[in-house]
Design goal:
Structural class: alpha+beta
Helix content: 10-25%
Distance between the termini: 17 Å
Number of helices: 3
Strand content: 35-45%
Number of strands: 22
């Protein structure tokens, strides 16, 4: 590993960058990634690559009938569980092309003998690109994670861009107030929405930073053109995030890595059934068990970001 200290033009004098200046370039690398992430998540109707989420809820049991008296509770069907699987998030990776090192492609630094030398490609990775990926993949959800994703209970979240107006997970429970004895046979499944969860992409910020010195085509020292330097940062971080072992970015549901945003909680009522009867006439007695109980957390799902 070779972390270098690039040179910059300080009012006509060559000077080594401070740690803060190098950090600003790392943050600019994050911003460049945020403008066109090479590992992107999208929302699809079904068949997404991030799987394993299930919303569960109780539904009523089927009615029982009798021509002589109300069917007993022991003869009526118990409430059952409805399970809805969610696979609405899919991941795609497009790393682009690797950056070629001509021998003077990258910023210069002072070597151990105080000679001016161009950074190698590995120097660039160690100094700027890999530190940017560390920032991108940590558990925070601020601008230093621009271009990566999180889950929110809000369809519109400040500092983020909604990937879709469609929820990627919905927690539902039986709507106990919708079931009445006078309506037996009631519709079995009558859910109500408790929470909806949305995929958000964190916005980056184009921060200010000091441009480094490079060697131009005539072997002169000059300040790197901004567009040229930023293009190098962008191409290298995008490629590294897909191809560089130890620094590739991936997402999962409850896999390895850091949680991103809100946990997606599946809750369900825990009752054994609310037994109800209905007398229609002397030849028509009905009974049915409705969902009841207290809400319990069944599962919590997290969007995870992982560096590997």
């Amino acid at each position: 590993m070779a972390v270098r200290t690039p040179l910059y033009n300080n009012s006509g004098n060559l000077q080594q960058m401070t740690t803060a200046m190098v950090t600003e370039i790392v943050q600019q690398t994050v911003y460049q990634y945020s403008t066109d992430p090479s590992v992107a998540l999208s929302v699809v109707s079904s068949g997404g690559s991030l799987t394993g989420l299930s919303d569960t809820r109780l539904q009523a049991g089927a009615q029982s009938t009798s021509v002589s008296s109300a069917p007993g509770e022991g003869t009526t069907a118990e409430p059952s569980t409805v399970t809805v699987s969610y696979d609405k998030i899919t991941s795609t990776s497009t790393g682009g092309s690797d950056t070629t090192d001509s021998g003077k492609t990258f910023p210069v630094y002072l070597d151990g003998l105080n000679n001016i030398q161009a950074m190698s490609k590995q120097d660039m990775l160690d100094t700027f690109i890999h530190p940017a990926i560390y920032l991108l993949t940590n558990a925070s959800t601020g601008t230093d994670q621009g271009g990566t994703y999180q889950i929110s209970t809000s369809a519109s979240l400040s500092g983020n861009t909604a990937v879709s107006g469609t929820a990627v997970f919905v927690d539902t429970r039986a709507n106990t107030g919708a079931y009445t004895s006078g309506s037996i046979p009631e519709t079995l499944d009558q859910p109500t929405t408790i929470n909806s969860y949305y995929l958000q992409r964190i916005n980056g910020v184009d921060n200010s930073y000091t441009l480094p010195i490079i060697i131009d085509s005539s072997n002169h020292l000059q300040v790197s053109p901004e567009v040229t330097f930023e293009t190098i940062l962008k191409n290298m971080v995008k490629y590294s995030a897909v191809n560089d072992t130890g620094f590739t970015i991936s997402y999962s549901i409850n896999g390895s890595g850091n949680n991103r945003g809100s946990g997606m909680v599946d809750t369900r009522l825990d009752g054994s059934g609310n037994y109800q009867t209905r007398f229609v006439n002397a030849n028509d007695y009905r009974a049915q068990e409705f969902p009841n109980g207290t809400a319990q957390t069944i599962s919590t799902y997290f969007l995870k970001i992982h560096k590997s």
